[in-house]
Amino acid sequence: MATPDLGFEHRFLPGAPNMPVLLLLHGTGGDESDLLPLGEALLPGAARLSPRGKVLENGMPRFFRRLAEGVFDLDDLRKRTEELADFVEAADAAYGLGGRRPIAVGFSNGANIAASTLLLRPGTLGGALLIRPMVPLVPDPLPQLSGIRVQINAGQVDPLVPPPQSEALAKLLTDAGASVKLHWIAGGHALTREDLEAGRQWFGFSSLSGNAGRSQW
Questions:
Q1: Is 10 marked active-site?
Q2: Could you read off the pLDDT of 38-96 as tens digits, one per residue?
Q3: Which of helix, strand or coil describes residue 198?
Q4: Which string of DSSP letters, residue by residue, matches 137-190?
Q5: Residue 214: its pLDDT value, please?
Q6: CA 47 to each of CA 58, 92, 129, 187: distance values in angstroms, whole numbers, following the listed order
Q7: pTM for the model
Q8: For the chain, which residues score pLDDT lower than 70?
Q9: 108 in catalytic set
């Protein structure tokens, strides 16, 4: 079956109809395959929708432009956020997802656009696991995110995202009404096994077992 043209290069792996859909959003230099194993390890059997960022930075895919390290092009961020939200809506129709709002699992740049989607297009996502995010922007007024669950996995010694950034994002989303858990990882910016363990607990798993135990994670 040919992959439908939904505006993004992407992969879709169907899952059980009674389980959530995961929207997997890679970091700078990643692609649509990067987080598929993480998604399966986090929530085995869930459908996985994974787009590739359309912006290139020195040949590396990203979801939006930045002007410097930690300095975002806010106009481009707003534009790309709208494009991603439109993609999610188109994927719902194309893949027969039945209106299930996906749970975003984003790393770094992917976590930032996931946070931006929560803030700028509320109703697109059903929740989010944000791994090493920053505050993408502060909308005025804030959206209403009541009923949305978010976990932020922040690195205690992350050289790219200082702890106050993680705390500020947690406060921003909480002020918008989301139920936010800020979890500190004993590490830097890279993904770790602890991210998987904390993510599985957030998704409702009490222990690592089954397919996740045999995965690359």
A1: no
A2: 999 999 999 999 999 999 999 999 999 998 888 899 999 999 999 999 999 999 999 99
A3: helix
A4: ---SSPP--TT-EEEEEEETT-SSS-HHHHHHHHHHHHHTT-EEEEEEESS-SS
A5: 34
A6: 32, 11, 16, 29
A7: 0.93
A8: 1-2, 205-217
A9: yes
Picking from 79, 51, 195, 193, the residue whose alpha carbon sits closest to that of residue 136 is: 79
- The H or E element spanning position 131 is strand 127-131
Among residues 10, 34, 108, 116, which one is catalytic? 108
| Torsion sign across C-alpha atoms 40, 43, 46, 48 | negative
Backbone dihedral angles phi then psi of residue 115, each to the nearest 5 degrees: -60, -40
Domains by residue range for the chain, with CATH:
10-204 (3.40.50.1820)
Q: Where are the beta strands (DSSP E) in 45-97?
A: 47-51, 55-57, 60-62, 66-68, 71-72
Coil, helix or strand at residue 98: coil
Instruction: Output the pLDDT for position 1.
Output: 57
